[in-house]
Amino acid sequence: MLKTGQPAPDFILQGHDGVINMLSGYKGKAAVLYFYPKALTSVYTEEACPFLVLQDRRFSKNAAVIGVSPDPPEQLIWFIEKRKLPFLLFSDQDPKTAKAYKACGKKKMYRKKYQGILRTTFVIGPYGNIAPVIKKVKVTGHAAEILDTLKSFKKA
Predict the structure, then answer these.
(1) What are phi and psi of 138, to 5 degrees?
(2) What values do phi and psi take at 37, rounded to 5?
(3) Which of 46, 79, 143, 154 could bridge 39 with an S-S bond, Cβ 3.0-4.6 Å?
(4) How far apart are CA 119 and CA 103, in angstroms?
(5) Distance between CA atoms of 37 and 22, rounded to whole angstroms?
(6) 7: which strand partners?
(7) What percent of the chain is predicted at pLDDT more than 70?
(8) What is the mean pLDDT of residues 23-52?
């Protein structure tokens, strides 16, 4: 697992908007990079919608919220439009980026084991270093925890 203080691995991913993005394109801004297994689920909706608080608190000027999943861009577009999310969702279908961030691994559902995306969030500081890593994300209260971290960047 990546640790606090380490440089965040750069990535090249297609956003739901069709634009190719790189983490290095966000230098000077904090980034909230969160990995989730699948859009269009009730759990993901519960996780994503509280990130609207970050936008409402005007952190969007100083922080980019970036969701990454193995979903194809077409599915992400539909989800963005349905939930009116004002941030980017990236498609990591291979999943190279999730592997670089150690955000995939063994999972179990209905007694079956498989490899999948682990719900993990990385807060990346304006200079490209990983601030906290939140593993095994609990959907409730997640956005508030991120908001507290972003406030510390504003004070620094």
Answers:
(1) -95, 120
(2) -70, -35
(3) 79
(4) 7
(5) 21
(6) 129
(7) 76
(8) 76
